[in-house]
Amino acid sequence: MSPRSLWMRTVLGQIALVQSVKETFDCRKLLRLKIPSCVVSARSCSSMSGAVEDYKPPEWATKLTYIPKKRIHLAVANTPIHTWKVPGLPADFSVSIKRDDLTGSTLSGNKVRKLEFLMADALEQGCRHVITCGGLQSNHCRAVALAARQLGLTPHLFLRTDATDVKSAGCEGNMLLDRLCGSHIYLVPRRNPFLTHLKPRMEQLAQQINTASGEDSYLIPVGGSNKTGLFGYITVFEELMQQGALDNFDDLVFACGSGGTATGLALGNYLTNGKLRLHAIAVSDNATYFYDHCDETLAEVGMAHLNSRDLMRVIDGHKGKGYGISTEDELEFIQQVAMETAILLDPVYSGKTALGMVREIHNNPGAFQGRRVLFLHTGGIFGLFDGRMTPFLEQKQEQEPLIKMWPEVNDCPL
Ligand SMILES: Cc1ncc(COP(=O)(O)O)c(C=O)c1O
Fold this sequence. Notes:
Blueprint: H1 3-25, H2 27-32, H3 37-40, H4 42-45, E1 53-54, E2 70-71, E3 81-83, E4 94-99, H5 110-124, E5 129-135, H6 139-150, E6 154-161, H7 173-180, E7 184-189, H8 194-213, E8 217-219, H9 230-242, H10 245-248, E9 251-256, H11 260-271, E10 277-282, H12 287-300, H13 308-311, E11 313-315, H14 328-341, H15 350-363, E12 372-377, H16 389-399
Helix pairs in contact: 5-6, 5-9, 6-7, 9-11, 11-12
Residues 109-111, 139-140, 223, 225, 255-262, 346, 349-350, 378-380 line the site of pyridoxal-5'-phosphate.
C-alpha cells in the first residue's frame, strides 16, 4: 500500500471513529435507535418503578365488586404525618399534616396514587400511548406525562386554556414539565366539558394513532377519578390505618377537585367503620356535583346502596373567585404558611383547602367531630411556579424590601 493510500485509510478511519463517537453521544440518534430499554419495552422498564404486580386489596375492601387486577409502585408510600402549626388556628384545635406532597419529586401529590392502578392497567392492556385531559396547569396531566415516560409510553395531553395560539400557552409550572418530557399537547377551549367535548376528541385521537401505527391508547378521565383510580386512595386509607391515624385523629380534611380522592377516602372510612369525619373542600364545581360523581363511582364498585352525603361533608364556599383563580387573601395565606411552617401550598388546590380548613374551624367548629384534625396535603407544588406569585412577591418587595443590592464589600445596605 502506498504511503498516500495508507494516510487516506488512517484519516478515513479517524473520521469514522469520530463519527461513531458523535453518534453514540447524539441523544436524538440514541432515541431513534431505541437504545434505552424503556423505549423498547414498557414492561421491562417498569422494573424502574417496581414491576406490574398482582394487586390484593386490604381485607376490608375485598367485598367490592370491582377490584383492579394489577398495580405498579410509582409513589414513595408511607408519607409522613407530623404536627403543623398552621397560622390562624384557635388554641383548642390541633392540626397535623399527612405529606402526600412527598410521594415523589416530579411524581408528587395525590395523582401518582391513582396512577399506580391506571398505569398498571394501561401496561396490562398492552397500550403504548396514554391520553388524558385537564387544565393548562393540570397536576394530573403532568403526573401522567412523567409516569408515561418513566414506563416507556407516549403521553398525549388535552389541555384546557384561554390561549388562542400555541405560543401564548407558555412554559411555566406544570406546563414546563409537560413540554420537557416531550408530551404531545392539544390545546382546547377552557370551557369545553369532558363528556361532550373532550372525550370525543380523546377517542378520535386514539383512533388516529391506531390507524397510523396499529398501537393502542389508554384513556384516563379528568383527574384520574374513575373506579380504577379510586384504589389509589383505598390504598392510602389502609396506610392511614397502619400509621395510627384512626386513633390519633377525629377529622380528615382534603381538597376536592375531580372527586377521586374524596371517593377513595370516603369508601375506606365507611368500610372500616367510619371512625374519621371527612371534610372535602370543593375547589372546583360544587358539592352536588361531587356527591353525584362519588355516588356513580360507588355504584360501579358494588356500593350503590350508599349515599355519599352520609359518608363525607363536601364543603362549598372556599373556591374564592373560582377554580384556579387566586385572591389576594389566598396568596397572602400561602406566603404566611411558607414563612411560619415551611410547608409549600399551591394556589389551586392545597392553598384554598388549607385556608378553607382554618375558616371552617373558626366559623363552624361544631361540624368537626373532635379537635384533632388531620390535613391531607395532596401536592401540586409546580402550580406555585406558574407565574402568578411574581406580581404578588414584587408588590411585597416594594412594601418591605427583603432583596437588597450589596455590590461592594464595604457597602453594607443595612
Ligand atoms: C394538587 C391537587 N390536590 C388535590 C386535587 C383534587 O383531587 P381529586 O381530583 O382527586 O379530587 C388535585 C386534582 O384535582 C390536585 O392536583
